[in-house]
Amino acid sequence: MTCNYGSYKSGSTVARKPLPLTILIIGGNRGIGLAFVRQYVALGFNVYTTYRKCSESEALESCAVADLSTVPKKLFALEAKNPNNLKVMTLDLADEDSINQAAEDFDGKQLDVLINCGAVCELNRPALETTADELMSRFRINCVGPFLTTRAFLPHLKRSRNLTGGDRSPLVVNMTSEMASLTENRPGNRPGTCLSYRASKAALNMTTVTLARELEDEGVACVALSPGRCVTKMAKWRGLMDPAESVEVMVDVIDSLRFDDSAKFLNFDGRPIAW
């Protein structure tokens, strides 16, 4: 079953008119999420995105929360410039009521692609220095949150399948990391760093595969996609490429996915990553 989510290839010489698909990007206020918002808005998709309201003290203390004085303003400015195809909503991945309310506010719309981008990461340090609270909070945001958003928005994803007559399957994209790979966590590859991030993203990978199996009969595809090593605030501005570079490639990968790709763990360029 072919699963083409848009007819525009962002890297193509000749632009093809995009289908009027609806994309929801969880965590679109910074980094990879914001790059996805910009790219899909520019391509003409119907884009919804979320951000978490937080206090200024939280923004200053947490590597996971963007500076309130910059990024949300960028997101709101983008919405103001694109009122017809961008809608910004609030959603807190640590609050199930907030997630369910956002899904309710979606108001019966169809959803073609759900991209779960929200994540948190701790500082690099020995694994044995990781605290229980840190582990629990990372699992809550990096694994439980995406699971809850997928479940909450599933009726909207099913609506997409019903309205398209089955020729295109709705898609859940969970943004994961190559650091979640058990195979790549080998001697010489700094296996002791970022324990809670690695473990929670590995749990997200298992969640992705399990949901893919359970939703197979519903025609909903689920994939785990790593953006690669990008220069973002969460990565302490260290990386090999700008988020926009990664996202431009990932948009084409998402466009090319087939239903048979469900339950796969892929790099940003579409290459499989070993579990």
UniProtKB/TrEMBL annotation:
**Residue ranges the record marks as coiled coil:** none
Family annotation (Gene3D superfamilies) = NAD(P)-binding Rossmann-like Domain
- Which SUPFAM superfamilies does the UniProt entry name for this protein? NAD(P)-binding Rossmann-fold domains (SSF51735)
GO CC annotations, alphabetized: cytoplasm
Q: What family, per the record?
A: Belongs to the short-chain dehydrogenases/reductases (SDR) family.
Q: What is this protein called?
A: Short chain dehydrogenase
The answer to keyword Cell inner membrane applying to this record is no
What Pfam families does the record tag this protein with?
adh_short (PF00106)
Keyword list, A-Z: NADP, Oxidoreductase
- Record organism: Pyricularia oryzae (strain Y34) (Rice blast fungus)
Instruction: Give the molecular function GO annotations.
Output: oxidoreductase activity
Q: Which domain of life is it from?
A: Eukaryota
Q: Does the keyword Translocase apply?
A: no
